[in-house]
Amino acid sequence: MPETAEELYARAAASLRSPPVHEWETFPFRGKLEPRTLEPPLAAEAPRQGAGGLNCSSCARADESYLWTDAHWRLTALDEPSGLPLILLLESREHFAEPGDLPDELARELGMLLARIERAIRAVGEIGRVHVCRWGDGAEHLHWWFLARPLRMPQLLGSFAAIWDDVLPPTPRAVWEDNQRRFLAAFLA
Which domains does the chain show, CATH number per domain? Predict the structure, then answer.
């Protein structure tokens, strides 16, 4: 029988550990960290922004504010430059909450689109890797993140790339906009 949230909490809270991330070359900070106290499980999950498609900011957003759209998908960049050279988000046009909610036809289309977007980001130049991420804890509308890691920057490898994005100074706006233009040229070719 699976462990309940309460059982997991009781076991975990008694034995929190600090992984040796301070020894990893990719960890963005110096020194050892101490884990926060693990809070007990809530009575219920908090509703995400746009839950059930109600007051969903993605559903309400106009197509003109996206880099690219089609009948099923919309692709956008962050509003402002961040530390990584390019970050894009792919959203379903229709309001779906989870990948498993997609009809099979859209799921197949999604797989091809994820690969196409990743290839076009690499074509921007000076991109070492593209991390494709799905978190979805903040907003219910189905979306994927594409994080472009700069070439030859081994400290930015792996899952810490998202944290490095917050640590690094923002990419100059002209470079950030040029990266979007280069992406679109490769994506639409």
Answer: 16-188 (3.30.428.10)
Token pair for 105? 């036809």
Q: Is the pTM of this model over 0.90?
A: no
Residues in the chain, total: 189
Angstrom distance (rounded) from CA 58 to CA 93: 8
Q: Can you read off the two tokens belonging to residue 93? A: 């046009």
Q: What is the pLDDT of residues 87-126, one digit of tens each?
A: 999 999 999 999 999 999 999 999 999 999 999 999 999 9
Pairing of strands 143-150, 127-133: antiparallel
Give the orientation angle of helix 104-122 with respect to helix 173-188, to 10 degrees: 130
Q: Are 141 and 51 in contact (CB under 8 A)?
A: no
Instruction: Please report the beta strands in the chain, taking only residues with DSSP state E, as ranges in sequence order.
Output: 68-69, 73-77, 86-92, 127-133, 143-150
Closest CA to 164 of 18, 26, 32: 26
